[in-house]
């Protein structure tokens, strides 16, 4: 499933991602410890985090995340949005909790994988 299709199906707001919207999202990874994400997230994951600082773009690029998902309507820093856009990283915003995003995404991605 493409990031832009995922975002639409989940009712998420796309903050950046004109270039990254065509990436395939193959799983979900939820974690806020950046060093842990760097060593455990998989290429193609939609990464859920409450962090909104500039390092988020760097970690997403390093892990080859399909996108960054910011839950609970948390505002993302403008510098992060700008850097992510420059790097072709999609940042999605959702009013849902991390749990609810994981639950719905599992059902959505699982249905498309079958």
UniProtKB/TrEMBL annotation:
Protein's recorded name: DRTGG domain-containing protein
Species for this entry: Anaerobacterium chartisolvens
């Amino acid at each position: 499933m493409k990031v832009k299709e995922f975002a639409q199906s989940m009712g998420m707001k796309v903050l950046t991602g004109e270039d990254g919207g065509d990436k395939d999202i193959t799983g979900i990874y939820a974690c806020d410890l950046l060093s842990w994400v760097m060593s455990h997230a998989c290429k193609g994951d939609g990464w859920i985090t409450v962090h909104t600082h500039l390092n988020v773009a760097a970690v997403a690029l390093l892990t080859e995340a399909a996108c960054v998902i910011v839950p609970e309507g948390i505002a993302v820093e403008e510098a992060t949005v700008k850097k992510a856009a420059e790097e072709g990283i999609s940042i999605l915003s959702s009013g849902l909790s991390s749990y609810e995003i994981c639950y719905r995404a599992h059902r959505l991605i699982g249905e498309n994988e079958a």
